[in-house]
Amino acid sequence: MPLSARVKNAKQKVQVDTESTCQAHPLLKQGCALPRSTSFEISPQELFGIATLRTQSPETGNYTFGDCEKGWRYMLGTYIKYLDVQSNLISAKVVDEQLRDVSELIGIAYGIKALTIEFDVELNRITRFSPKTKKKRVDFEFTKDNNRYFHETKGTIHQGRVNTLRQEILKQKLSTKSLLTSAVPPAVGAGYTGSITTYPHVKKATTPSQVFLIDPPPEPTVALPVLPNEELISVLRYYQNFYAVTHRNVVGELSLSQWLFDVIGELKAGSRPPTQPPPALVSVGRQSEPGRENSPYKGTTFDTRTTRQAVKRFRSFEDATIELITPVYFVGVSDEVTSLIRNCLWTKLLAFRDISQSGAERDNGAVLPSGVLIHFLGAQTEGYEISQRTFFDTLKKRFG
Fold this sequence. Notes:
Number of helices: 12
Strand content: 15-25%
Distance between the termini: 28 Å
Structural class: alpha+beta
Radius of gyration: 21 Å
Helix content: 25-40%
Strand order of the largest sheet: 2-1-9-8-7-6-5
Number of strands: 16
Largest sheet: 7 strands, mixed
Number of domains: 2
Low-confidence stretches: 1-6
């Protein structure tokens, strides 16, 4: 089956099993008694969009555009080289050390989507948990109703590893609790969950795509309230990760990414949220969505043909173009989100949900509820194709 038919409107159905250990979690949505099963569908575009949480910069530093572009290009290369996308099946096609990267992407995307379905949390609240230590810990955190929550994601092609991963998550959970209690000031989370995703390999396509949502029980604790602005901090960190690549982020200018980094630091120090932006703030998207006049999404494009993985896989730029079919990825943020941030309308930002998230009018496009668009595109203008072919040849000489 040609790749264009496989990718266009592709959807993977994923079963979600929410286990009884989650019963006491404060944010568990009402529904059937636990344990319970449900399911969701996810497109390749949505998979990539959620998995970009992997690229989020740590709290201790603000990534430049160059830093972010390298991280996003590496993730794109892993995505297009090692994932096989059929019309209704997404599977791994790698057996070496790169399988860990693929499993991480799948584990994040499926696990986080399952979390937002079964628990009362929005995607744009979820950020990387990055304390100033290399000690074992969970990967993600979010704030809701003045309480702090934590989540760990795992992915595997081996169904027999699920119980082992349960134990790993429990160890990370207990270690995270230890990090929080030893912090200054000390903190205690209100909930610690985990997700274990199994998914197929092309050589074992019968492995189910399934997420186990768990809450391995440690000793009982009482959560400590967090700072009033922790929820806003989580949301700003989420968007800062995208603005670093989607909007102008030039040294010497006050970019959206840099300003949000500064605002987050001030909020963590106890300041109130700003009521107006600095006059020098630059909030211009790097480009409009290609091929769509008056599109409300501004961002940037990434070309999967000019990643290291692509130049090692394909003999020529033309081969990559033929095989990949939709080689250019546009990543954009809604103008509505940008306007809310630029005008310091924080309450409205916290309540924002993109009502066009179905993306039904876009072939190979998906809009996340957070207002982020992931759109797979075909070949572009002649000038663009010439420049990318030259870039491919340069990379081929160096890495191919």
